[in-house]
Amino acid sequence: MKYCLKCNKEFPTQVFIEEKKVSLSKRKYCLDCSPYKSNNRKQLHLLINENNIKVCQDCNKEYVGGSKKLKDRCNTCASVFYRNRVKIRAIEYKGGACSCCGYKKCISALQFHHVNQKDKDFTIGNYSFRKFESLIDELDKCILVCANCHSEIHSGLIDAFKIFEEQKLTLPKYIVENSTKIKKESVPKISKRPSKEILEKLVWEISCVKIGELYGVSDNAVNKWCKFYGIKKPGRGEWEKIKASNFNLISNN
Asked: What's the pLDDT tens digit per position in 12-51?
C-alpha cells in the first residue's frame, strides 16, 4: 500500500481497470486526486502548500518553484533578466551605442546587424540565453545599430561595410582570460594482483574468499584474476579430495 502525497490517503499498488490489471507502484497520487490516463505533469502536493507559493519581484505574480539561480523570480522573469544581462554586455562590447547615429536610450531598440549575411551562423537575439563568451565570434561579424538605422541599412541608405571596417581599428577585441589550471600528476596504480605462479598455487590451497582477504580485495576480483591468467580453479569434487588429503596429513602427524 502507498500514501497519496496530496490527500495522504492510502491506495493500493495494483488495481483492476476495465478488466485489466494496472500497477500503481510508481504513482505519487491516488486515482481520486489524479485520475487514470489524465496525463498529469503537475506536482499537486506543492500547489496546495501555501509555504511553497512565492511572489515574483518583477511581475508580482504568484508562482510555485521558480528559478534556482535567480531567486524571488518566476521562470519567465528569470529568463528575461538573464537575456537582458547578456545583451547589455554585448552592447557594451560593441561600443554601447548605435554605430550610425549614437542612439543608446533603450536597449530593446538596439540590434546587431551582420555585415556579410553569408558569414551569419545565427541571430544574436535568439541565442542570448548562452554565455557571453560563446557569442564573441558572432558579435565580431556585426555592428551595433538602432532599429531605425537598421532599416536604412537594409534599404541601402547607409553603408554598413564602411562602418564595420572603421570599427575594426577603434573597438578593442575581447580577450579570453586563460585560467591557470594546476595539472594533477598522475599517480601510478599499485597492482595488488599476484603473479600467475603464486595465484595458481594459492587457488589450489585455499578458497578465493581467503585469497581476497590476503590481498584486500573481494572474491570476485580473485575470480577475475584467474580468468585473466587462464587459471583453472578446483571444482567441488576436487576440493573434497584436497580437504581429505589435508585431513590425512594432519592425522598421520
From this structure: 888 888 888 888 888 888 888 888 877 777 776 665 555 5
Q: What residue type is 232 in one-letter code? A: K
Q: Look up residue 209 and give its three cell numbers.
A: 574468499
Q: Could you list the beta-strand ranges (E) of 57-171.
A: 62-64, 110-114, 142-146
Helix (H) or strand (E) holding 11: strand 10-11
Rounded to 5°, the CA angle 121-125-130 comes to 80
Nearest of 127, 100, 104 to residue 115 by alpha carbon: 100
Query: 70 burial class (0-12, 13-18, 19+ CB within 10 angstroms)?
Result: middle
Return the ∠ at Cα 18 (arms to 13 and 22), rounded to 5°.
25
What is the chain's length? 253
CA 57, CA 78: separation in Å to the nearest integer?
10
Q: pLDDT-based confidence at 244, cuts 50/70/90? A: low
The secondary structure of residue 252, as a DSSP letter, is: H
